[in-house]
Amino acid sequence: MDLVWVRQHVRRTAAQLGFGLVEQTRLVTAASELARNTLVHGGGGVVESTCLTSGRVRGLRLVFADEGPGIPDPDRGSLGAGRPSGGGLGIGLGGTRRLVHEFSVESAAGTGTRVTVASWAATPPRGAP
After folding, report:
1. Are 52 and 58 in contact (CB under 8 A)?
2. How many angstroms separate the CA atoms of 78 and 73, rounded?
3. Which DSSP helix (H) or strand (E) runs through 12?
4. How far is CA 33 from CA 5, 102, 109, 118, 126, in A?
5. What's the rounded mean pLDDT across residues 95-110?
């Protein structure tokens, strides 16, 4: 049920912000993978959703946070090309990073994980937050 809610929320919010259908689908796919990772690998957590504006361009920032086991070395492990997180959509964090305009991960073994993504309804503005 939580995964369904995240997908619906992201799709609805992105549409309200003026995202095109392809942009909505990319963001919903990224959110699905991150929500699933939060539940399966992090043991559950929270998602924060923030609407963004930069001039006339609108965007959406999503933060997925958990208190699970963490990722010992995100750059060498989960973010590596072709390294899915296992069993989900098969795109892993590396694939998720390619679906959004902005991507960051904060994690270490035993500290949980915080993944922040943002997408814009058009080409990302210069100096976008």
Report:
1. yes
2. 8
3. helix 2-16
4. 13, 16, 20, 14, 27
5. 93
Model-level pTM? 0.85
CA 17 to CA 80: how far, in whole Å? 31
- Taking only the tens place, the pLDDT of each residue in 15-62 is 999 999 999 999 999 999 999 999 999 999 999 999 999 988 999 999
Q: Do 97 and 79 contact (CB within 8 A), yes or no? A: yes
**pLDDT tens-digit profile of 76-94?**
555 554 444 455 455 788 8
Helix segments in 87-128, DSSP class H: 92-99
Give the position of tokens 């995240």: 6
Measuring CA to CA, which residue among 23, 27, 26 is closest to residue 10? 27
Instruction: Check: CB of residue 123 under 8 Å from CB of residue 102.
Output: no
Q: Which residues contact 66 (CB under 8 A, 6 or more apart)?
A: 38, 41, 42, 43, 44, 45, 46, 112, 113
Using an 8 Å Cβ cutoff, are 68 and 42 in contact? yes
Question: Which pair of tokens denotes residue 113?
Answer: 């994980």
